[in-house]
């Protein structure tokens, strides 16, 4: 019997990959078929995404599937949240696709709060304040590029736009839409009253579609280029939404960390909590699969490690530097564990969002607080890893305080679940059992939405059970 293949295109801020899956003996079998680089470009002083290059990479990976003789029956794309594309009435892109780390949103929070006070904004949406949220990006467009929003016929989040380029069909997917801070957790649809108060054109915000919705088949020209047709099915297009889908636990009270460029730590709620305690602790209620809420906190995450790794690879000089030194994540993590420096920084400080030099910023933070200043890659990594684990401890305590629940286990999924010493630190510093894995959580969750749609699994619980049995976890106490 011919195998049914499903394709997840999972694009992060630094790389993207095409992951194929099929079922074998009741287990999900995962295979990476294509990988490509991603990152912001500098254009006219702004950080932007080259969405056309991303689309070319998507097509290139799809062609590889065909060359392997493993043609998928469906596919879906997930990316990071908050960034968007504006299209005119003819479906052509208007202006650049700005990156969330771009500085154009500076001061836009004050502009938003002149129209809708901060407390009201949180109460209406349940979404934590982050200066890069779409609500502030749209204010930047309104203030800095007058008329642009009015010229637009539609707004699509990045994965929605990439699905549109594949199919010619515009769908606004629910989980990613909630990251805009413009969706009501009461109605699970756009808050048009809020949108009107902010002066954003209502025509940009259409019907929201859930993960598992069919977008359509490939456009004729796309079909011709890749050599086959398939059905595009919406995953949770917000990568964290997909990652949390694959948390391999059947328990209702689950504490998780989706660990990658960002560390997203929280739990699942069936009803959003936009109360004062949640607001004071800066927790967010992001939409999840089947209208579950990802009640979580954004922590800076492995972005800090990724940044210092790049700097040392590029030749950042330090005492004792050796030619040909291994700056791979595994070696950095191992070497950090044997250092003794005890300094800590606040990993959630905005100073670490997009500094010119992450190394210099970490050193400056230690110097300013009167602590020992790290010099080598391993010392700097130790400071970052221990600071992250301390953030996890504080966030876990806050989740318990706000929800009134107790969590004895933390499930770590995503690329960061492979950081062995960080997992050990997390168990030690939080005083909780840690279950680490799967590493490819986002792609697996993306595939899960497609496979549930196709009837392979009866629902989320069946899928999560299969994830545990297929990929297992590593336990730390």
Structure, described:
Helices cover 38% and strands 22% of the residues. It has 477 residues and is α+β, with helices and mostly antiparallel strands. It has two domains: 180 residues, ATPase, nucleotide binding domain (Nucleotidyltransferase, domain 5), CATH 3.30.420; 189 residues, Nucleotidyltransferase, domain 5, CATH 3.30.420. The strands form six sheets. It has a seven-stranded mixed β-sheet with strand order 19-20-18-17-21-22-23, sandwiched between helices. Strand 17 and strand 18 form a beta hairpin. The longest helix has 27 residues. The chain starts with a strand and ends with a strand.
Task: Fill in the keyword field for this structure.
single chain, 477 residues, alpha+beta, Nucleotidyltransferase, domain 5, 6-stranded mixed beta sheet, 22% strand
What is the strand and helix layout of this fold?
Elements: E1 5-11, E2 15-24, E3 27-37, E4 41-43, E5 46-49, H1 51-67, E6 72-78, E7 84-87, E8 93-94, E9 97-98, H2 108-115, H3 118-125, H4 134-144, H5 148-151, E10 154-157, H6 158-167, E11 172-173, H7 174-178, E12 183-184, E13 189-190, H8 192-198, E14 208-209, E15 214-217, H9 220-226, E16 231-233, H10 239-245, E17 255-259, E18 263-269, H11 276-280, E19 284-287, E20 293-299, H12 303-313, H13 329-337, H14 358-368, H15 377-403, E21 409-413, H16 420-430, E22 433-436, H17 441-453, H18 460-471, E23 474-476
Parallel strand pairs: 1-6, 6-16, 11-14, 17-21, 21-22
Antiparallel strand pairs: 1-2, 2-3, 4-5, 5-9, 7-8, 7-10, 12-13, 15-16, 17-18, 18-20, 19-20, 22-23
Helix pairs in contact: 2-4, 10-17, 12-15, 13-15, 15-16
């Amino acid at each position: 019997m011919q195998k049914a293949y499903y394709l997840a295109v999972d694009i992060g801020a630094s790389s993207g990959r095409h992951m194929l899956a099929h079922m074998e003996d009741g287990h999900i079998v995962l295979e990476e078929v294509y990988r490509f680089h991603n990152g912001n470009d500098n254009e006219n002083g702004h950080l932007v995404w080259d969405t056309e290059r991303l689309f070319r990479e998507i097509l290139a990976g799809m062609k590889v599937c065909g060359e392997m003789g493993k043609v998928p029956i469906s596919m879906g794309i997930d990316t990071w949240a908050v960034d968007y594309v504006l299209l005119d009435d003819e479906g052509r892109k208007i202006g650049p696709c700005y990156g969330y780390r771009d500085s154009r949103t500076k001061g836009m929070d004050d502009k938003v709060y002149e129209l809708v006070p901060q407390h009201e904004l949180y109460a209406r949406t349940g979404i934590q304040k982050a200066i890069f949220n779409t609500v502030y990006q749209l204010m930047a467009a309104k203030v800095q590029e007058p008329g642009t929003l009015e010229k637009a016929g539609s707004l699509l989040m990045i994965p929605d736009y990439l699905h549109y380029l594949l199919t010619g069909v515009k769908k606004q997917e629910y989980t990613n839409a909630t990251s805009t801070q413009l969706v009501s957790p009461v109605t699970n649809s756009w808050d048009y009253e809020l949108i009107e108060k902010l002066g954003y054109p209502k025509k940009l915000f259409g019907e929201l579609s859930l993960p598992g919705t069919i977008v359509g088949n490939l456009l004729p020209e796309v079909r011709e280029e890749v050599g086959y047709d398939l059905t595009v099915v919406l995953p949770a297009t917000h990568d964290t939404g997909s990652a949390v889908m694959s948390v391999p636990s059947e328990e209702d009270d689950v504490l998780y960390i989706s660990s990658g460029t960002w560390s997203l730590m929280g739990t699942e709620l069936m009803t959003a909590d936009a109360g004062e305690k949640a607001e004071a602790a800066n927790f967010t209620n992001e939409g999840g699969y089947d209208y579950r809420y990802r009640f979580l906190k954004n922590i800076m995450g492995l972005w800090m490690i990724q940044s210092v790794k790049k700097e040392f690879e590029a030749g950042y000089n330090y005492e004792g530097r050796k030619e040909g030194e291994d700056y791979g994540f595994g070696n950095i993590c191992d070497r950090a564990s044997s250092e003794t420096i005890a300094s800590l920084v606040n990993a959630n400080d905005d100073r670490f969002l997009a500094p010119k030099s992450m190394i210099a910023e970490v050193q400056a933070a230690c110097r300013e607080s009167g602590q020992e200043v790290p010099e080598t890659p391993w010392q700097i990594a130790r400071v970052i890893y221990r600071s992250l684990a301390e953030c996890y401890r504080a966030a876990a305590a806050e989740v318990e305080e706000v929800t009134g629940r107790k969590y004895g286990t933390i499930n770590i999924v995503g690329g960061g679940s492979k950081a062995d010493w960080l997992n050990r630190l997390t168990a030690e510093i939080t005083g909780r059992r840690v279950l680490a894995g799967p590493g490819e959580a986002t792609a697996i969750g993306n595939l899960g939405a497609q496979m549930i749609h196709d009837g392979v699994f009866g629902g989320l619980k069946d899928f999560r059970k299969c994830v545990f049995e297929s990929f297992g976890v590593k336990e730390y106490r």
